[in-house]
Specification:
Distance between the termini: 35 Å
Strand content: 15-25%
Domain Pyrroline-5-carboxylate reductase catalytic N-terminal: 26-117
Radius of gyration: 18 Å
Organism: Streptomyces pactum
Keywords: Oxidoreductase
CATH superfamily: NAD(P)-binding Rossmann-like Domain
Largest sheet: 8 strands, mixed
Strand order of the largest sheet: 3-2-1-4-5-8-9-10
Structural class: alpha/beta
Number of strands: 10
Shape: globular
Pfam family, one: F420_oxidored
Protein name: NADPH-dependent F420 reductase
Number of helices: 10
CATH topology: Rossmann fold
Order of helices and strands: HEHEHEHEHHEEEHEHEHEH
Length: 234
């Protein structure tokens, strides 16, 4: 039997076999905002080492002290440099400028974009479509030397920040071009009790995932809820 034949008979990788990410440092750009602060708190509470970033280092350090759980604060550049994985949780209107300013610091890093481009009017929230197709694709275009993924779009900041809540029962859709990278992000999501990371396609499909947040906002307003997502039969 040739080596080629042997490789063809190799068993398929278990899609739920994920790497150990417990030793990785996670940076959160926009970590002083509600979503970033909530993610930082949950990951640190799960035992992850977390650094939050802000344009103002003093503001980041003050927020880190409030979060507790060993979270550190730094300016955005230092946060990016010191982290293995960097979650982008900045406001949409500052997304491009922030990433452009950190291109060098984010080179070689695994970047997880969780930004949702949304507009608001008297009818409620609605999705915006960036020229690149999505926030994640914009990030990939601006960071050619980084490994960009997309995840953590549909999480309630209220639930993330509430210390009385032990579990957040929800799925996290993860998108990216490399299975090794999406596996890492899925494993990171799974560190938070109740969460599961689910591969949901390549970055070209990120717009639909980002846009769905507008629908969840409508659900939450109607039902006074903090809705998330569950994907069935997987």
């Amino acid at each position: 039997m040739t080596e080629h034949d042997q490789s063809k008979k190799a068993p398929a990788k278990d899609p739920w076999e994920l790497p150990d990410v417990s030793g990785l440092v996670v940076g959160v750009l926009g970590g002083t905002g509600d979503q970033g602060r909530g993610l930082a708190y949950r990951l640190a509470r799960a035992g992850q080492r977390v650094i939050i970033g802000s344009r103002d280092a003093d503001r980041a350090r003050a927020a880190a002290t409030e979060i507790g759980e060993g979270v550190e604060g730094a300016d955005n550049a230092e946060c990016a440099r010191r982290s293995d994985i960097v979650i982008v949780a900045v406001p949409w209107d500052g997304h491009a400028a922030t990433l452009e300013s950190l291109r060098e610091e984010l080179a070689g890093k695994l970047v997880v974009d969780c930004v949702n481009p949304l507009g608001f009017d008297k009818k409620g929230a609605y999705a915006l479509k960036p020229a690149e197709g999505s926030a994640a694709e914009q990030a990939a275009a601006l960071l050619p030397d980084s490994r960009v993924t997309a995840a953590f779009h549909h999480l309630s900041a209220v639930l993330l920040k509430d210390p009385e809540i032990e579990r957040i029962d929800t799925d996290v859709m993860v998108l990216g071009e490399s299975r090794a990278d999406t596996d890492v992000v899925q494993a990171l999501a799974a560190r938070i009790p109740g969460m599961r990371g689910v591969f949901a396609g390549r970055l070209r499909n990120a717009h639909q995932v980002e846009s769905l947040v507008a629908n969840l906002i409508s659900v939450n307003r109607r039902y006074k809820a903090h809705a998330g997502l569950r994907i069935t039969d997987v």
